[in-house]
Ornithine cyclodeaminase
Amino acid sequence: MLSPLPSARAMVPFVSVGNMMRLVHHLGVETVLAELTDAVEADFRRWESFDKTPRVASHSRTGVIELMPTSDGTIYGFKYVNGHPRNIAAGLQTVTAFGLLAEVATGYPVLLSEMTILTALRTAATSAMAARHLAPRGTRIMAMIGNGAQAEFQALAMKAVCGIDTVRLYDVDPDATRKTMRNLAGSGLRTFACASAQDAIEGAGIITTCTADKQFATILTDNMVGPGVHINAIGGDCPGKTELHRDVLRRSDVFVEYPPQTRIEGEIQQMAPDFPVTELWQVVTGAAPGRRDPRQITLFDSVGFAVEDFSALRYVRERLAGTDFYETLDMIADPDDPRDLFGMLQRAKAATR
């Protein structure tokens, strides 16, 4: 007797945007950010076990579409993500994403998930992980330059992981700053709207830049940056898009995710191919020093890397256990005889009569 229904392995757990939001609120936003920071750090500690390649990017005049794959030998993962700065004018998201995990042994998917919200969470978690290792100890003030979709996630991650209690905000669009202040009301963070980037970084121990324009920009210049700060530069993430003057890089100890990708997409695309950088996983594992003295300027030149998305998807998969924050999709053709795919198709025709 042929089974009329797909087997359990053919049914893939799917986390929709709605269910992702339910999961995050069930756990608590700051709890998710703190736990996700630990999940990313755990995978950085086993960095050498992952396949690594620069993301595959398709650039256009209006933006970029990218695939970001990796595998730890047991699980394979990838993310589809776009970056279209002009979307905002049409009322669309600048970044949208989805991702998938699959068993290496069989190739069968084990999770499909939205990643627009999850990318914002994992980007903030990665920033917080870097700051945990590189920022000056005891810092309580953060400057957030660029107050778009990522700003609140960044601020709350720094609060949950690094103990930040004050955020100084600046954006060329005052409405974006007002939006961020409104969303952070009641979070326990003190927020201040600033008139300029220079004003925002006054007294800040952590400076985060996150602007969206796809162009060479100068958000921070050398004369603006004093000694002893940590900078998370997360807005530059493709060729031709940067946020910092090169003199800031020359004064800083620069830390990156994956040099072959960052030298193409990050702030260091402005520098010579042999410009010295340290891979962040080496700091996490103790193989290389991070912050060495109070006056040192540390800079995390972050472009986002596939291992971080893998960590985020792995975390979600683990956190789904025992919940109903997902649905199942009939994604895998599942004939009773693996060699008889056409027969399965024919039986489906007969079943519709």
